[in-house]
Amino acid sequence: MISRRELLAGTAALALLGNSPRHRSTIATPPVTPRIPVRIEQLGRVRVDDYAWLKPTNWLDVWREPGRLNRNILGYLEKENRYCDAVLEATERLQSMLLREMKRHAPGASNAPPVPDGPYAYFTRFAPGAQHPTYLRRPRAGGPEKVLLDAGQLASGKPFLAIRNPIHSPDHRWFAWAEDTTGA
Description:
This protein is α+β, with helices and mostly antiparallel strands.
């Protein structure tokens, strides 16, 4: 368990990290974002945005297939990520401690009470230490619960998974959800 003093000291260190000139010069140099002026005309007004090049024109396609991101944009984002990793590297132990502490204080791992709907009660459950819930239902008249979606199993082997808008059909025959596997 992390002490209150360690938590406060660590939080202060995180807040100050990178603010001293000595620290900035020894860790990493932030990448300089190239300024590429783009003329934009909207509603009869013209403006120049030096950073509009960072939003790909095919942004909707990139959401669906991140591999379609322009190589110049991808290259710059990779530099930003390397810089971020270098700056935060000194806090990895603290980040891990804070995450454990937050999980320890999470109320019942966010298990919400069942929501009754027609003949079933719908609910989610988090296994201890799990990052993703299991979606279930149980007959209101009694009987065994049924797993509708095990998001942890679905996330296995994926670098990222977010389940959005899980819902059952009005006749209770189907369970649908949207999933994001890229974080985009």
